[in-house]
């Protein structure tokens, strides 16, 4: 191979750095400047050709693709360049030829020494190989040991990296077996992020890494199963949790009540009233009946955390939080608790029958929300205040609807009162946990109305029983102790009665103090419902007065009205009822004082409701009076029905009829009973004094009317003058009775005027004074002013028919017509005139 000269190397380097495919030069006819450019272009092309590293295809193509005949000029330039290189080579060879010859000569001299040295080196190498063979063997052994040592060191290092992974995995297994799932998840996290990446190239680590997601899912399933067991368990424990929370709230309320009462011990204490062996001390609105609650043992009250193991919730929450699926857990928990809330809010069908049914219902609800409140404050986000408020609002609407429905079935006031106490404790308990309970206290006003209705029904039975057992006679008092007992039960004050010696009788019957006592018992019972309602004394006073008014105006009034209408209640009982209602009416002011003492609200307070006892007892008294008049008239009618007149008798018996004498005797004895009616100077009692006068006047008028109707009965066709005389004797006895003043207080002959119509009619027939009657008819001074022409005509026709019938029977009417023809003509004339008067009145 031809050795490149320095010049050729320089040319190649220059061509490599300035590789340009220049165009071929133009024909020789160009200018000098163009020739120079052509020279440069051919020079660059030659340099490219001389460069063995560059491809020649492009260079050669540029030569032939350029201007016509350019390759000829290039060949000429190339030949010239070859000649120049040959001259340079020749000069260089001539310049180095002597040196080359000298070098060859020296090399030949060295050749022999080199061969000798080669032999020595070969011999030395052989001996060295023989001597180093054992060393080589030992060296290989050392190398092998060193490799083993290195492998062992590497293995130890790798094992030191793997052992922590295995230990952590073993720890993970132990944690899973011991159900420490949250710690197991933390261990998994360390394995994934710290330990396994260090030895990820090993297969067992890959298996571990593949198992970790499956273990996480198992942990999720197990923790969810524990949560379900917890939710099922909490349903069973809600009753106990609620019972404990409500008992604690009740003890707190009792404690605060005791503190408030202790603080007010220095204030004025109202009187003590003792009813049925129970003592009611009124200090504000605190009743001594509640003092027993303060004596409850201060036993340790367990909280929800003590009764319920919340660890499954915490554990499950932490697990799902670590796994990044907290939202799923929260949604599931809230959904399940909503379902449980709906189940808890479903009452038993017979819940209204006993207070235990209501207590279990409230305990379950309180337990549910106590648990939710604990979860709210312990988990920070599992449930929110908005969620619990939503649950409570839903529950509150359901609770109110349930209580409205079931309380309406309850007819026992004691059960309604216990229900009210449970609602108050229920509301106070949940209020302590931050829930709004205003609607529950509003519901209590509806329950209060139901309670009042049940009280009214109960007291209606009490009143009826009192009225049925009453003997309706004045209370006999044998000794002063008995008198004090009666006065302690009923505010009776009568100076005249107090002056009388024992034994004596009080004007009212035994039912009066019993009714008064029961009204006070009703007030106490109504007051019990007003306790703990967080209402002012004025509101409680107003509620008491309104409920008492309902008792008086509706229940007691209704019982009195029914009593008065009963058939077995006679005139004596009605008289006693009038006396009783008068005393009860007077006692109403003491009932107002009684309510004032209980509530500490002055009766002069604006808008204070008054008791309506005055109108209640006044209406009852009026009804009793009306019933007296009715029964007295009925009794008169019974006697009248016993009348057995012989209307065709020739002469009277010469004495009054037996039935009428019995009737008059009955009226005398009856009106003697009216002397027991109070006739004091006060307005209310003086009204009762007029009852006897009104009853007597009503009886006389009714008797007069009944006798008149007997004469004018259309079924009675004829009457003899003897019957008229007998009837006249009876009317005379009635007039004697009226003039004997059976009831004091009548002026003059007022009572006798009740029989004036009968008297004038009978006088007209007895005297046979028709001329006077017809002459004076229509005159204010007429002797027979109260005799109606129609009445006189009807009776005269009956007498006339009687006279004719008697004459026919005795066969003496012909003689009568001969002797008394003028009288017959007179009767006929009177009849015609009376008919003309009647016709004139009708026209």
UniProtKB/TrEMBL annotation:
Residues 77-246 form the Exocyst complex component EXOC6/Sec15 N-terminal domain. Residues 440-798 form the Exocyst complex subunit EXOC6/Sec15 C-terminal domain. Keywords: Exocytosis, Transport. It holds the Pfam family Sec15_C. One of its GO terms (biological process) is vesicle tethering involved in exocytosis. Belongs to the SEC15 family. This is Exocyst complex component. It comes from Betta splendens. The lineage of its organism: Eukaryota, Metazoa, Chordata, Craniata, Vertebrata. The gene is exoc6.
């Amino acid at each position: 191979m031809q050795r490149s000269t320095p010049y050729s190397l320089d040319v190649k380097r220059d061509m490599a750095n300035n590789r340009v495919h220049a165009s071929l030069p133009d024909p020789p006819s160009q200018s000098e400047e163009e020739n120079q450019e052509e020279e440069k272009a051919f020079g660059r092309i030659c340099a490219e050709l001389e460069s063995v590293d560059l491809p020649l295809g492009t260079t050669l193509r540029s030569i032939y693709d350029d201007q016509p005949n350019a390759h000829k000029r290039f060949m000429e330039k190339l030949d010239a360049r070859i000649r120049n290189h040959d001259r340079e080579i020749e000069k260089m060879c001539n310049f180095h030829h002597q040196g080359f010859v000298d070098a060859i000569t020296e090399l030949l001299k060295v050749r022999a020494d080199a061969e000798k040295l080669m032999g020595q080196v070969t011999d030395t190498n052989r001996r060295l190989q023989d001597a180093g063979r054992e060393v080589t063997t030992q060296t290989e052994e050392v190398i092998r040991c060193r490799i083993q040592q290195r492998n062992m060191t590497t293995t130890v290092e790798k094992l030191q990296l793997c052992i922590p992974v295995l230990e952590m995995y073993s720890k993970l297994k132990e944690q899973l077996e011991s159900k420490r799932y949250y710690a197991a998840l933390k261990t998994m996290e360390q394995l994934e992020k710290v330990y396994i990446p260090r030895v990820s190239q090993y297969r067992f680590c890959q298996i571990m890494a593949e198992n970790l997601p499956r273990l996480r899912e198992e942990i999720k399933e197990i923790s969810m199963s524990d949560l379900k067991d917890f939710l099922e368990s909490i349903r069973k424990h809600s009753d106990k949790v609620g019972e404990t929370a409500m008992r604690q709230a009740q003890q707190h309320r009792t404690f605060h009540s005791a503190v408030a009462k202790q603080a007010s011990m220095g204030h004025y204490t109202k009187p003590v009233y003792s009813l049925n062996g129970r003592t009611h001390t009124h200090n504000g609105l605190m009743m001594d009946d509640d003092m027993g609650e303060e004596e409850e043992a201060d036993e340790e009250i367990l909280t929800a955390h003590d009764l319920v193991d919340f660890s499954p919730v915490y554990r499950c929450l932490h697990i799902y939080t670590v796994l990044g699926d907290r939202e799923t857990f929260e949604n599931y928990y809230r959904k399940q608790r909503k379902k449980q809330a709906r189940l808890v809010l479903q009452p038993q069908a017979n819940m209204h029958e006993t207070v235990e049914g209501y207590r279990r219902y409230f305990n379950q609800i309180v337990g549910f929300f106590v648990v939710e409140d604990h979860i709210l404050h312990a988990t920070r986000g599992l449930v929110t205040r908005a969620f619990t408020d939503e649950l409570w609002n839903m529950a509150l609407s359901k609770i109110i609807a349930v209580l409205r429905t079931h309380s309406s079935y309850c007819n026992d006031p004691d059960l309604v009162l216990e229900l009210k106490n449970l609602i108050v404790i229920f509301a106070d308990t949940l209020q302590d946990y931050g829930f709004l309970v205003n609607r529950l206290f509003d519901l209590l006003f509806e329950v209060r109305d139901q309670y009042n209705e049940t009280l009214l029904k109960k007291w209606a039975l009490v009143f009826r029983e009192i009225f049925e057992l009453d003997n309706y006679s004045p209370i006999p008092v044998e000794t002063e102790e008995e008198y004090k007992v009666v006065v302690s039960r009923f505010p009776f004050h009568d100076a005249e009665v107090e002056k009388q010696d024992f034994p004596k009788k009080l004007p009212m019957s035994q039912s009066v103090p019993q009714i008064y006592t029961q009204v006070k018992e009703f007030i106490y019972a109504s007051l019990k419902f007003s306790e703990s309602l967080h209402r002012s004394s004025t509101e409680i006073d107003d509620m008491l007065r309104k409920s008492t008014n309902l008792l008086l105006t509706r229940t007691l009034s209704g019982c009195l009205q029914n009593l008065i209408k009963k058939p077995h209640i006679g005139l004596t009982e009605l008289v006693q009822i009038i006396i009783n209602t008068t005393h009860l009416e007077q006692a109403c002011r003491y009932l107002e004082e009684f309510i004032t003492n209980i509530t500490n609200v002055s009766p002069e307070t604006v808008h204070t409701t008054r008791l309506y006892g005055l109108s209640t007892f006044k209406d009852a008294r009026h009804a009793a009076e009306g019933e007296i008049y009715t029964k007295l008239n009925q009794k008169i009618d019974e006697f009248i029905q016993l009348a057995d007149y012989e209307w065709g008798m020739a002469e009277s018996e010469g004495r009054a009829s037996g039935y009428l004498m019995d009737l008059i005797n009955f009226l005398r004895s009856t009106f003697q009973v009216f002397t027991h009616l109070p006739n004091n100077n006060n307005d209310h009692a003086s009204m009762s004094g007029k009852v006897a006068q009104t009853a007597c006047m009503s009886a006389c008028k009714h008797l007069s009317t009944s006798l008149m109707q007997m004469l004018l009965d259309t079924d009675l066709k004829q009457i003899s003058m003897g019957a008229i005389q007998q009837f006249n004797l009876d009317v005379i006895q009635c007039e004697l009775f009226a003039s004997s003043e059976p009831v004091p207080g009548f002026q003059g002959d007022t009572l006798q005027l009740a029989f004036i119509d009968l008297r004038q009619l009978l006088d007209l027939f007895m005297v046979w004074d028709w001329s006077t009657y017809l002459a004076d008819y229509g005159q204010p001074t007429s002797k027979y002013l109260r005799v109606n022409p129609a009445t006189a005509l009807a009776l005269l026709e009956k007498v006339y028919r009687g006279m004719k019938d008697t004459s026919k029977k005795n066969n003496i009417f012909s003689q009568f017509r001969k002797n008394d023809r003028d009288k017959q003509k007179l009767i006929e004339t009177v009849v015609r005139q009376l008919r003309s008067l009647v016709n004139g009145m009708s026209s």
